[in-house]
Amino acid sequence: MTESPVLLPSSPESGRLRASAARAGSLREITLTRPDDWHLHLRDGDTLRAVIGDSARQFGRAIIMPNLKPPVTTTEAARAYRGRILDALTQAGFQTEAFEPLMTLYLTDRTPPDEIRRACDSGFIHGVKLYPAGATTNSDSGVTDLLANCRQTLAVMQDLKMPLLMHGEVTDPQVDVFDREAVFIERVMRPLRQAFPALKVVFEHLTTADGVAYVREADGPVAATLTAHHLLYNRNALFRGGLRPHYYCLPILKRETHRQALLEAATSGNPRFFLGTDSAPHPRGAKEQDCGCAGCYTAYHAMALYATAFEAQGRLDRLEAFASLNGPRFYGLAPNRGTITLERCEAVIPQALAVDGTDVVPLAAGETLGWRLRG
Ligand code: NCD
Ligand code: ZN
């Protein structure tokens, strides 16, 4: 099987996003209910101040990942982090009503059931994030054995309808890195959902056909987020002409058959699938080194990237459900009230963005997108 890194129309060998794909279509612009990002890393401090505008320009709300150092494990820590996010928002020139951070707690082996009750009472915490210990960036305090260590906490989450947001990969070094999601379904997801069938679960940043099939067929309240990079790229992007650290994220990009399954799911209209960028800024130097960090920065051009993926599938008409309607429905929230407009335009993605005295390389740097956000 041939696998080009980016399989958009007219770009099979070069592996480049091409505006010509967009030109082939007829729509000049699309207006959508303002979308939400159901999986976002905003970081903290100067980085937070530098990146927040990228999300706030496009999205009305975002689920904020708690993998800071130290992680956000308590309602009080989440309250303080939320305050810093709102301060950064106003410093970036936005009204606080423009963007609502939906906070999460970082689950550990020792998160007490009472912490879930406090989180629920707060009104601003909308999920609890499972990082299997060691699975990804800043996951050292993650869970070592979910069903052995977190049963009482999970029972309270189930009762209170607090969603569990799962980084769905096993960390067993014996398991091939490309198989970690599929093995997670068997070893963790199925036993968990057998024990807690009414627990609300989001399978975060789904990357495989196995994950898509699981989410489609599962009984009960299960959904999944999909990133723009997993919809646009397969694993060849990591090795195009050399090692490409800015395409390295976790879960890692998979082979083309998996990308096709993700695209099909995203554009199917099935309400279980919705937008979560997993935008994860790292300074260039942290990625370009002998042990580089995982994470792609996509907040800058998120909606243009998703529009490119949906258009390549001939399904721009389904973008609004995926980006703006399915997520709020799962989380029990109303859709946003405003709209955004994307317009057809050959926009070159910058080679780097200035962030916190260093630079961050956005996904697909130097390539041309066929869409951009108006205004
Ligand atoms: C994320 C990060 O950098 O915080 N990295 C990534 O590759 N996605 C963590 C995560 O969501 O796994
Ligand atoms: Zn993430």
Relevant terms:
TIM Barrel; globular; alpha/beta; about 375 residues; binds zinc ion
SSE map:
Layout: H1 19-23, E1 29-33, E2 36-40, H2 45-58, E3 61-64, H3 75-91, E4 100-106, H4 113-122, E5 125-130, H5 146-149, H6 151-160, E6 164-166, H7 180-195, E7 201-203, H8 209-217, E8 222-226, H9 228-232, H10 256-266, E9 273-275, H11 284-287, H12 302-312, H13 319-331, E10 339-348, E11 353-355, E12 358-360, E13 368-373
Parallel strand pairs: 2-3, 3-4, 4-5, 5-6, 6-7, 7-8, 8-9
Antiparallel strand pairs: 1-10, 10-13, 11-12
Order of strands across the widest beta sheet?
2-3-4-5-6-7-8-9
Which fold name corresponds to the CATH topology?
TIM Barrel
Query: If classified by CATH, what would the architecture be?
Result: Alpha-Beta Barrel
Number of strands: 13
Return the string of H and E elements. HEEHEHEHEHHEHEHEHHEHHHEEEE
Instruction: Describe the global form.
Output: globular
Rg, alpha carbons: 19 Å
How much of the sequence lies in strands comes to 15-25%
CATH class: Alpha Beta
Number of domains: 1
